[in-house]
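Many introductory courses stop at the sequence. We go one step further.
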Amino acid sequence: MSESTGLRARKKERTRDAIGDAAVSLFLERGFDRVSVNDIAAAAEISKPTLFRYFPTKEDLVLHRFADHQGEAARVVRDRGSGIEPVPALHRHFRAGLDRYDPVTGLNDHPEVVAFHRLVFSTPSLAGRLTQYQLEDEEALADALGEGIRARLLAAQVLAVQRVLARANWQRIADGRTAHDVRPQAVADADHAFGRLA
């Protein structure tokens, strides 16, 4: 019984990935506003109702790629070792992302990643939806940090720092520099910003 459940879950995940990949390819090729849900369903060879079972909104077809990072800052705080304060744990985690050239840090020069970020940042409805995701992350981080206004303020500050750092890294790369060339400045900026938070 559990084997067939696992198989169904894997098939559902593959279908979700195929729909999302088809949508992002079309969006990158034509622009978000020039692609209809019908276009995406046709490219993925599914019906429109099936598409909406996997992705409730058109924006979710793009932003599902951030799903792995949803609630990440809160997880870092909850899972940090004993004796490690939250801000140093978050700083270390962000630096590790820079070391991996993780796209969420903005420090990734793969052409599709740069184009994807350009799509998100230049499409108002996507930027607005991303802001909603960030507010949910802020709420989760504040809960992980504790109660009261201090936890909420720190959560807002940390996520603002991460957002600004990632956007600055992406902009330098979008302006034509390589991730390798940008990395020293990205590390210095992260150290400075998290140092100010601490």
